Amino acid sequence: MIAVVRLRGTIDVHGKIRETLRLLRLHRRYHCVVIPDTPSYRGMLQVVKDYVAYGEINAETLAMLLRNRGKLVGDVALTDEYVQQKTQFKSIEEFAKAVCDGKAKLSDIPGLKPVFRLHPPRKGLKNIKWHYPRGELGRNAKINELLYRMR
Predict the structure, then answer these.
(1) Secondary structure (H, E, C), 53-121
(2) At what angle are helices 39-47 and 15-23 packed, to 10 degrees?
(3) Is 53 found in the same domain as 65?
(4) CATH number for the domain harbouring residue 88
(5) Contact 148, 64 (CB under 8 A)
(6) Residues 14, 132 contacting (CB under 8 angstroms)
(7) pTM to 2 decimals?
(8) What angle do CA 132, 21, 71 make, to 5 degrees?
């Protein structure tokens, strides 16, 4: 699974890039989506690489995102009890591990919003005009650390 975080705004964005960001459901800065690692999504990420940071997400970070930023319809927080009632998993951590292993999808939880709305990162960003490792944009090997700072 790949986590994608939008880091730049909408001023002077080319139409193709704007449309790709819309298809990825990244409408605002600091919104995050978790997508499968498929060739079609890889092509979309190549188009928007100058506006987002992305990388492989691990189960611990996904569980942290679901616990802290996972919202249901009606802006209700996601809880272990809801996951236990609506799915076959007993906790958010178990569900996150299954998602990272490919045994489950985020859409298996009914009513879960596909976008995580994050805070700006604590201690700021390195640079949003340069790609990783000089900045934060593009394929970022430290995406889990970035998401932890944005929790």
Answers:
(1) EEEECCHHHHHHHHHHHCEECCCEECCHHHHHHHCCCCCHHHHHHHHHHCCCCHHHCCCECCCEECCCC
(2) 140
(3) no
(4) 1.10.15
(5) yes
(6) no
(7) 0.91
(8) 95
pLDDT band at 129 (very low <50, low <70, confident <90, very high): confident
**Which value, in Å, is the radius of gyration of the alpha carbons in the chain?**
15
Residues 96, 138, single domain; the answer is: no
33, 25 Cβ separation under 8 angstroms: yes
pLDDT at 137 over 90: no
Per-residue pLDDT tens for 36-48? 999 999 999 999 9
| Helix/strand/coil for 122 | coil
Amino acid identity of residue 119, one-letter, is H
Q: At 32, which helix (H) or strand (E)?
A: strand 31-35
| Residue 101 contacts residue 43 (beta carbons within 8 Å) | no
How far is Cα 61 from Cα 72, in angstroms, rounded to an integer? 19
Q: Nearest Cα to 100, choosing from 62, 64, 69?
A: 62
Q: Which DSSP state fits 137? A: B
